């Protein structure tokens, strides 16, 4: 198929169910890409929404001067003040966004995932570079950045036409910004069209060299097209060039993705994506505003250069009535002055934010004769400190969202898990979307295009622990592991995750619980579970006592030390105090926490057949008295009388059968 020059005007047929052919594309573009009917193009309303969403976070990412901050936030602000703020603007929020993206990058690259390609795809993907990056690097760096900054853009798989028809095509991954979209599958299911802003500016066509004025890609389920507007010696042409067959049978483009949102205007309801970092935007915006005002105040407070003679009077606009003008009233020889400025034409500023411009009186003699005072305007220190603290506070809040401060390494050791408070839990969808949709589809398309529909195949193994776990989910996981008698280390790991989720901001409670579990791992079990473990001789009596008493003892130590000293103390320091206080609860017959030699000998004689269960059975059957059983438990097993009574329980002899 060769390039088609547009010369004839075609009537546009009905589009609903017809096949998208080269002839149809020609007719659709008969008057150029800009003339495509609104029915098929991305609507203006959508583009505006996409633009606003992108600007919200991109201005922070780029560190650029935000239009809204300088043009809309203070609508009644004088131009000279706005200009001063703009000239002194500092992009303090950029670092937060970059750190947030770096955190996401570390999570994904640190996750233990793998991609296995079958030959010969393996050979190509091993050496293939996408904007200088490997395929996983491109997804985790470039694609995630684009998803965060422009969630309504698209990532497109595009083949480069091979010079030799028998060669396999090289594959490009092109990030299409939302501002470059012309037609999307949503607006017309059979066509995807976008402006290629980074295309080459010179091209060869029919032996002639042309200057490319604009270049577009058009992708259908059948073909890849280039649509270019070129010029040579003042003559312009529009060319539609079908250059590679689409062996995938679908539009090879995937949306950047984000959090789904809806907006309704007068004509339609728009479905669009908002950034994964949307939660941080309000904090970033407020931090930026506070900081710009703080910088102005800081300069005013410390710089003697900003000396002002007042601001222009709103009544007389700097031209007071004096000199030859007199009051018209009879027998009144008073000069007429402006009732607001007293005849000076200028007034002192009413707000510290007005004290920026050096604005002396128009008539210097006027200022001298009326002793016009030039003031050094300073800002109250309290105002200066408040703005600075507010800026820092909002930066910290934004960092908490962007830096994923609850990201922890999964206990399985093979992945990272995003474990966040509920209000920040939108990040959970990033991993599923990347591994299940983006990477899967892109590699499928690369495989099909490279091998002309005869795919060789690949496998993606995603991280097994890559998920958000809420407090409820962690508790259910813990209960399941306890029920199924999972390894103690695995149970403890889940409990530590649960503690972090249960007390996300309470460092004292986190430390109390962690010390309890470190000191006695069986603390994690309920009282009933510990009794069952002791009865079955899986734990000894000492462990049961320690697990029961440790929480109260640690709380007592915390109260004694005070919160801060408790948080600063090491585990070994606190353990010594626990050991001392724990002695009070240990049986007196025990020495250094161990049974006596005689108790050990007697317990070994009893063995399994003379366990507590057998004693209970003997009491029920009436073969021994309950008191005898209790005395046996005390004497043979080393328990206190109270504990022995509890273990034997309320067992009573069975009544004798009636004669």
Q: How many DSSP E strands?
A: 20
**Silhouette:** flat
Alpha-carbon distance between the two ends: 110 Å
Instruction: Tell me the Rg in angstroms.
Output: 39 Å
Whole-number average pLDDT? Answer: 77
Instruction: Please give the count of helices.
Output: 22
**Largest sheet composition:** 7 strands, antiparallel
Proportion of strand residues: 15-25%
Question: Which structural category fits the helices and strands?
Answer: alpha+beta
Helix content: 40-55%
Poorly predicted regions: 4-18, 303-308, 351-362, 365-377, 406-425, 605-609, 654-659
Q: Can you give a write-up of this model?
A:
There is one protein chain. The strands form seven sheets. Strands 1, 5, 6, 7, 8, 9 and 10 form a seven-stranded antiparallel sheet that branches. This protein is α+β, with helices and mostly antiparallel strands. The chain is flat, with a radius of gyration of 39 Å. It contains 22 helices and 20 strands. Helix 8 (281-302) packs antiparallel against helix 10 (381-402). Strand 5 (181-183) and strand 6 (191-195) form a beta hairpin. Helix content is 43%, strand content 15%. Mean pLDDT is 77; it is low at 4-18, 303-308, 351-362, 365-377, 406-425, 605-609 and 654-659.
């Amino acid at each position: 198929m060769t390039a088609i020059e547009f010369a004839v005007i075609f009537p546009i047929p009905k589009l609903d169910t017809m096949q998208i052919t080269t002839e149809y594309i020609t007719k659709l573009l008969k008057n150029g890409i800009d003339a495509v009917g609104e029915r098929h193009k991305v609507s203006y309303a959508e583009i505006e929404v996409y633009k606003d969403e992108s600007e919200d976070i991109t201005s922070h990412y780029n560190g650029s001067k935000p239009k809204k901050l300088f043009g809309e936030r203070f609508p009644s602000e004088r131009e000279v003040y706005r200009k001063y703020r703009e000239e002194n603007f500092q992009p303090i929020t950029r670092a937060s966004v970059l750190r947030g993206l770096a955190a996401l990058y570390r999570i994904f690259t640190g996750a233990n995932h793998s991609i296995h390609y079958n030959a010969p795809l393996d050979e190509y993907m091993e050496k293939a570079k996408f904007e200088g990056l490997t395929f996983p690097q491109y997804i985790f760096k470039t694609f995630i950045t684009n998803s965060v900054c422009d969630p309504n853009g698209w990532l497109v798989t595009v083949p480069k036409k091979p010079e030799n028809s028998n060669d396999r095509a090289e594959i490009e991954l092109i990030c299409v910004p939302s501002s470059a979209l012309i037609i999307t599958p949503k607006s017309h299911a059979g066509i995807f069209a976008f402006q290629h802003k980074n295309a080459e500016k010179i091209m060869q066509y029919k032996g002639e060299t042309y200057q490319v004025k604009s270049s577009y890609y058009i992708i259908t389920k059948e073909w890849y097209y280039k649509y270019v507007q070129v010029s040579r010696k003042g003559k312009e042409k529009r060319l539609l060039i079908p250059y590679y067959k689409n062996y995938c049978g679908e539009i090879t483009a995937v949306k950047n993705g984000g959090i789904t949102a809806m907006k309704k205007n007068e004509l339609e309801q728009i479905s669009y994506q908002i950034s994964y970092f949307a939660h941080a935007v309000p904090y970033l915006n407020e931090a930026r505003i506070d900081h710009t005002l703080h910088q102005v105040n800081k300069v005013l407070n410390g710089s003697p250069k900003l000396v002002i003679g007042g601001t222009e009077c709103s009544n007389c606009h700097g031209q007071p009535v004096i000199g030859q003008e007199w009051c018209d009233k009879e027998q009144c020889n008073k000069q007429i002055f402006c009732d607001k400025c007293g005849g000076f034409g200028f007034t002192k500023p009413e707000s510290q934010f007005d004290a920026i411009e050096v604005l002396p009186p128009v008539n210097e003699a006027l200022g001298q004769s009326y002793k016009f005072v030039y003031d050094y305007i300073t800002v109250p220190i309290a105002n200066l400190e408040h703005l600075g603290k507010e800026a820092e506070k909002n930066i910290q809040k934004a960092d908490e969202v962007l830096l994923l401060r609850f990201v922890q390494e999964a206990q399985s050791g093979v992945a990272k898990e995003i474990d966040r408070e509920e209000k920040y839990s939108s990040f959970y969808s990033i991993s599923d979307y990347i591994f299940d949709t983006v990477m899967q589809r892109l590699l499928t398309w690369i495989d099909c295009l490279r091998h002309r529909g005869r795919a060789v195949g690949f496998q993606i193994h995603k991280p097994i622990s890559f998920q958000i776990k809420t407090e409820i989910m962690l508790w259910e996981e813990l209960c399941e592991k306890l029920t199924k008698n999972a390894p103690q280390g695995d149970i403890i790991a889940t409990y530590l995750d649960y503690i972090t989720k249960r007390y996300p901001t309470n460092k004292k409670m986190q430390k109390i619980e962690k010390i309890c579990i470190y000191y006695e791992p069986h603390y994690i079990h309920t009282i009933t579970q510990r009794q069952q473990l002791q009865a079955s001789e899986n734990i000894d009596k000492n462990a049961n006592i320690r697990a029961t008493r440790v929480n109260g003892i640690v709380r007592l130590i915390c109260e004694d030390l005070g919160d801060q000293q408790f948080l600063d103390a090491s585990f070994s320091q606190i353990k010594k105090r626990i050991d001392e206080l724990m002695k009070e609860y240990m049986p007196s017959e025990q020495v250094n926490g161990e049974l006596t030699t005689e108790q050990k000998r007697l317990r070994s004689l009893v063995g399994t057949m003379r366990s507590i269960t057998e004693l209970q059975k003997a009491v029920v059957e009436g073969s021994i008295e309950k008191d005898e059983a209790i005395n046996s438990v005390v004497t043979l097993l080393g328990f206190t009388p109270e504990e022995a009574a509890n273990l034997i329980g309320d067992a009573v002899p069975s009544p004798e059968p009636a004669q």
